[in-house]
Amino acid sequence: MSALELLSTCEALLSQPTAPFCEEQVRAEILRRCAAFPHVATEQDAFGNVIARYQKGGAPSAFAFAAHMDHPGYVRGEFLGGVPERYRAKLPPTRDFGPFAMWDLPSFEVREERIYSRACDDLIGCAVILDVFAELERSGAPAHFLGLFTRAEEIGFVGAIQLAKSGALPEGLTVVSLETSSERGGQVTMGDGVIIRVGDRTSVFDSEATAQLESAARANGIPFQRALMQGGTCEATAYQLYGWKTTGLCVALGNYHNCGPDDTIASEFVSIADVTAMARLCTAVASGKTAVDPRLALREKLERQANEWIARIESPGRQPSV
After folding, report:
1. Residue 77: which region, alpha, beta or left (left: phi > 0; alpha: psi -120 to 50)?
2. H or E element: which one contains 277?
3. What is the rounded distance in angstroms from the CA atom of residue 22 to the CA atom of residue 174?
4. How far apart are CA 5 and CA 11, in angstroms?
5. Residue 178: beta bridge partners?
6. Could you tell me the pLDDT band of residue 299, with boundaries at 50, 70 and 90?
7. What pLDDT digit, counting tens, does each position of 185-194 carry?
8. CB neighbour burial string for 92-117, b if at least 16 within 10 angstroms, e if fewer
9. How many CB atoms lie within 10 A of CB 220?
10. Statement: residue 61 has pLDDT above 80
11. Most CB atoms within 10 A, among 182, 197, 230, 309?
């Protein structure tokens, strides 16, 4: 899919208002777009999470890409989500959407190779999953993977927990959490590529799954960074707590949760190049363009080096060194 088409998908999703427990319009847009893909079937669990399954070919699903449909906002007068009181105390203007309200900010703007929005987190992740569906349909690639669109992440992974406990996901699945994440701390640089997230503030993710992402990025020439990203906790931790194998991808986010300079509320923003790299990497992984376990090559290399040193230093007839 071209960058222009990816931007169109982002605009369609980011234009939908959302808040914890009030994701109906985002969910409706996701379902509408999925209905246009011949090889995608969708279902909802009892909580209202969406499970979208792309299947062309008989191989069992190995990966699920997960993103959440909500963003911090006012729900029935109560603010839900992680925005410090000092920002809210200034009473920045809001826009009403019936039972909920969002900050009165533009839903989608493109400036200087960046996307600006009231809610990049995590509608960008949702848009990337839809982009992967579209790219696989366009290419006709055989693949089998899941897209998981969850509710109420901003108040404690409510949707992800319900989904992880539901029994609706197949055993042996690796869940890849797709997020936008604050670039604070100097770990990463916006514009330098998708971030392969080895962990978050709470957890370290699966080593093999993380290595598979890195292998796929290298094999397909996709720019990437590798970092812990410990500024917050993401859905990978929630799935991991319930026994799922997890890893994560994210893109660097500016004005995290709309927290701008000088305690002002401002649009979030991400690099278009980073979002494109995330979509490319997810497509490569969904298409099976990665080694089964890239750590095996490293093990073989280290073992070969060890044997060479043993042969060189501990030659036959020589007493072992102490």
Report:
1. left
2. helix 272-286
3. 28
4. 10
5. 249
6. confident
7. 678 999 999 9
8. bebeebeebbbbebebbeeeeebbbb
9. 15
10. no
11. 197
232, 14, 286, 284 alpha-carbon torsion, rounded to 10°: -90
Concatenated DSSP letters of 192-258 = S-EEEE-B-SS-B--HHHHHHHHHHHHHTT--EEEE--TTS--HHHHHHHTT-EEEEEEEEEBSGGG
Asked if omega into 122 is within 30° of 0 (cis), the reply is yes
pTM for the whole structure: 0.91
Q: Say how far apart CA 134 and CA 282 lie, in whole Å.
A: 12
On whether the CB atoms of residues 68 and 155 are closer than 8 A, the answer is no
**Bridge partners, residue 259, by sequence:** 265
Euclidean distance between CA atoms 304 and 318, whole angstroms: 21
The answer to whether 5 and 58 have CB atoms below 8 angstroms apart is no
Query: What is the arithmetic mean of pLDDT over 41-54?
Result: 95
Pull the structure tokens for residue 3.
């960058």
CA-CA distances (angstroms) from residue 240 to 114, 206, 226, 267, 316? 32, 9, 20, 31, 49
Q: Under a CB-based contact definition with an 8 Å cutoff, are residues 225 and 192 in contact?
A: yes
- And the tokens for 278? 């995330």
- Give the 3-state secondary structure of residue 178: strand
